Amino acid sequence: MSLEEVRDRMRLARGESGRQDDEVELIVVSKGRTVEAIADLYEQGQRAFGENRAQELVAKARELPDDVRWHFVGPLQRNKVGAIRPLVVMLHSLDRLKLADAWVRDAPDAPPALLEINLGEEPQKHGFSPSEVGAAADAVVEKGVDVRGVMAIPPHGEPAAPHFRNLVEIRDALVLRHPQMTEISAGMTDDFEEAIRAGATFIRVGRAIFD
């Protein structure tokens, strides 16, 4: 599937759910891909890319144009915060309170972040459980983090749509307490259309475009 085919499927899913073109942004997940492959998509007009390894993001950012909008979408160690924070426009994987402390330490203007939600409460996954996210959101905001919403990956092997609907409900509850938390980062190669129909504002697609 090409970049344009993904964009076409996005347009169709938005239309089916009565959403406007500017309500959903495509983040091309470029982890493990070459600078040349990313540059080719850049030439096709793509600007938002997602990485999940700090060292790889730093290396690619040196070689690609300054107007690339880098999103960090994977687990982040606190000792890597200083390396990526100046480069990214958003952290999608704020998954614990200690990371929130590190994210804003000596950086009151740190980029915005999304709270990672462990929808299935799977022990092998990172993130806040649905039952604790309200209190976590309060605590993270109090620390000074500019939290804009939520991110999640549904449990593997389960239908994605119910989990996306649950994520929207979590976001809606958070907005009542923190009106700025409107964003939803959800949906990948196999389920991005379902995520759009549910209400995602960011989708993270890599394999469908590169493979």
Please sum up the structure shown.
The chain has helices spanning 3-16, 35-43, 54-63, 81-84, 97-104, 133-142, 160-177, 192-198, 207-210, and strands at residues 25-29, 48-51, 69-72, 88-94, 113-117, 147-152, 183-185, 202-205. It is α/β, with parallel strands linked by helices.
Write the layout of secondary structure elements.
Elements: H1 3-16, E1 25-29, H2 35-43, E2 48-51, H3 54-63, E3 69-72, H4 81-84, E4 88-94, H5 97-104, E5 113-117, H6 133-142, E6 147-152, H7 160-177, E7 183-185, H8 192-198, E8 202-205, H9 207-210
Parallel strand pairs: 1-2, 1-8, 2-3, 3-4, 4-5, 5-6, 6-7
Helix pairs in contact: 1-8, 6-7
Tell me what the structure shows.
- The chain is an alpha/beta fold and about 210 residues long.
- The protein has one domain: Alanine racemase (TIM Barrel, Alpha-Beta Barrel).
- It is built from nine helices and eight strands.
- The chain has an eight-stranded parallel β-sheet with strand order 7-6-5-4-3-2-1-8.
- Strand 1, helix 2 and strand 2 form a beta-alpha-beta unit.
- Helix 1 packs parallel to helix 8 and helix 6 packs across helix 7.
- The longest helix has 18 residues.
- It is globular and about 40 Å long.
- About 45% of the residues are buried.
Helix content: 25-40%
How would you classify the quaternary structure?
Answer: single chain
Shape: globular
Strand segment tally: 8
How many domains? The number is: 1
